[in-house]
Amino acid sequence: MTLLEKQILFPRLVAQLIQWLESNGYELTFGEAWRPPEMAKLYEQRGQGISNSLHKSRLAIDINLFMQGNWLSKSEDYKAAGEYWESLSTGVYKCCWGGRFGDGNHFSIEHQGVR
What we know:
single chain, alpha+beta
């Protein structure tokens, strides 16, 4: 798939994830979605990300989960959501959950080897 095709697909998949979350009792707020290149570079310098982040390509979003008003702050709190997100993968695109690399609230579509 091209970058544009993935960018068009991504919000549709996020909508499916949101519906799944709500049907499973979660509440959510959005964290960071699009990230300017300068911010990605700053995060990398701080050891908080990578300069080629998929947020720059509009293929990643950070979602903050809550249950009964309580913020779920640990990566393991996102495991069910992450596994659901990964289940949306096909042979054409791969949905990646950040909990596999210590960033539990990160949801993305792999592009050019970046998750």
